[in-house]
Amino acid sequence: MSIRQAIKSINVLNILLFALGAKFISYIILPAFAERIRYQLPSLKKTGEAGQEITKPDIKTPPFIEYAIVSERYIFHPERKIPAQKVELPKPEFVLYGTLITDNLKLAYMEDKKAPSNTPGRGQRQTALKLGAVMGGFTLKEIHHDRVVMVRGEESISVRVTDRSLKKR
Questions:
Q1: Residue 51: inside a domain, yes or no?
Q2: H or E stretch at 148
């Protein structure tokens, strides 16, 4: 290729790329080889505004005997047992609206005032419970025509049918 053909093939984009490459080399790559950068570590002692030296406070480590509890109560020991905490559950407030007793079916219509079940558009609802159903942590054990017996562990509650005529007075 002759010089004349090379000059004709150069366009504006080639000139622009050459100029950018030259600028990159002159500003970034060449100074990195020419200068040695030296870092100076800060001093450990600092001076305050009044010229007084500020030193680190003495950190005292506790005596070894205070770490003895770690070996005595090793929390990652495979035979470690978490102590059982006795949690007292709140007592529910049951209301018995009625019972349904047939030859092969026994139902109790109840509500827990402390944890009511709501239905959209109808408000609070009573729940139909069969024997063995759970409400408020208590299990329905017995259904009679005027009362039900709810059991939780050794605790039992007997709930009578509410008389709405007594509430209106």
A1: no
A2: strand 147-152
What does the pLDDT read at residue 130? 93
Specify the length of the chain in residues. 169
Residue 150, pLDDT score: 94
The reply to whether 134 falls in a domain is yes
Residue 125, domain extent: 94-168
Q: Are 118 and 127 in contact (CB under 8 A)?
A: no
**Whole-number pLDDT of residue 169:** 45
65 in a domain, yes or no? no
- Domain tally for the chain? 2
In a domain, 103, yes or no: yes
Query: What burial letters (b/e) apply to 109-122, b meaning 16+ CB within 10 Å?
Result: bbbbeeeeeeeeee
- For 55, residues 6+ apart whose C-beta sits below 8 A from its C-beta are 45
Amino acid at site 6? A
